[in-house]
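User: These chains co-purify. Model them together.
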Amino acid sequence: MTPLEKLITHIRKSVLLTDEQAKTMTASFVTKHLKKKEILLFAGEQSSHMRFISEGCLRSYYMDKEAKEHIIQFGIEDWWINDLYSYLTFTPAKQFIQAIEDSVVLQIHRDKLNELYNSIPALERFFRFKFEKAYVALQERTINTMSKTAENRYLEFRAKYRDIEQRVPQYMVASYLGITPEFLSALRKKTR
Amino acid sequence: MTPLEKLITHIRKSVLLTDEQAKTMTASFVTKHLKKKEILLFAGEQSSHMRFISEGCLRSYYMDKEAKEHIIQFGIEDWWINDLYSYLTFTPAKQFIQAIEDSVVLQIHRDKLNELYNSIPALERFFRFKFEKAYVALQERTINTMSKTAENRYLEFRAKYRDIEQRVPQYMVASYLGITPEFLSALRKKTR
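Assistant: Joint model of the two components:
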């Protein structure tokens, strides 16, 4: 499948799109090819696009005052990745988005997407679902960080994101879980 | 204005609704009259409704293991209030919703709302906006709790919710800010 075909297939898992609508929609997406380690969004820039991963693996992270990186999200094929807060509030991104592998991302500008909502109501539904899910994920992430032990967070991560765990370097998994690589390694031995 | 007229006016601030659509929509809302202190949603119940406040003032809060209440959200006329996580995930609510004053709330069941999305695309847009804003508000609340001082949180609350500060008991404002009533009182004196 081409990247655009993957996008159409992905959207059709949630809503009905006619071939005509699919054609109109895909005309507004731009394909970006990223090399491993290439940065798609810099903190400080405004995120004006929604971004679909058609191939590869990316991460979003913020950098604290000591220049330490904290991973917020991983994304692989068939996921969306963004600094959604920046996109929704027109403010500078707090997060970087970077390719962990060579990747292909399809992105659409906010203005184009807002136009498409008018001509393709199914797309507006798709993104309503998206924002509902983003709300739920953010709530879960907040609760997990505050109330669960590192071991439980690791076990949940492994259950939910098995395929990601095997693709990204261990120090990144540790950063996502908010623990040291040494502690992650101990957890892995313990829970094997 | 009647409660239903207020709802229509509120929704028309964001999207276009024909009179016909407004009529169809309001037929699916149920009006609830609440006495001061009455509970609209109990923790443990599933929240199956979206809830618009047409009159009065409510709060949502959770109760910790020591039965201490932590206020998550206040709501007054023209606001929506809910345990949105419960509504979106079909899980038991973690929050209570309670009237702080005699209040009138209009609520619509999830199933009815999902039906209306099909006949009134403008309503789907309205709720897309709603979920986008809910995401932004949740993100801001999380960041504020983690990274701002109590004094700054109080000043922001006062700037943003002046009308609420004057309507709810001070101990509830303290609970919302995560500080003691004594500390709030000291902050009020200091920042007067």
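The CA atoms of residues 13 and 187 of chain B lie 36 Å apart.
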